[in-house]
Amino acid sequence: METIKLRDEYIKLGQALKAAGMVGSGVDAKFVITDGLVKVNGAVEYQRGKKLYDGDVVSYNGEEVRIIK
């Protein structure tokens, strides 16, 4: 499982997908999120601006990324 290290208190879901290389751009992130293809901590998430904190896990397209402080 890949990790993303937080520089601030949180990272937004769209930014996390881009940082992990799961999508190529913010527009791609928007579409995969609004299509219900992304899960946060096992639940489908539709908000691109969802704030992710230490310990959260993002799943998309068979890949998982953990957010760490």
Note the gap between the termini: 16 Å
- Describe the sheet with the most strands: 5 strands, mixed
Count of individual domains: 1
Task: Determine the number of helices (DSSP H or I, runs of at least 4 residues).
Answer: 2
> Which spans of ≥5 residues are poorly predicted at pLDDT below 50?
none
Portion in beta strands: 25-35%
- SSE order, one letter for each helix or strand: EEHHEEEEE
Rg over alpha carbons:
10 Å
Q: Quick one: how many beta strands? A: 7
The third-level CATH topology is Structural Genomics Hypothetical 15.5 Kd Protein In mrcA-pckA Intergenic Region, Chain A
CATH class: Alpha Beta
Categorize the overall geometry. Answer: globular
Structural class: alpha+beta
Fraction of residues in helix: 10-25%
Task: Order the strands across the largest sheet as they lie in space.
Answer: 1-7-6-3-4
Gross CATH architecture: Roll
The CATH fourth-level homologous superfamily: RNA-binding S4 domain
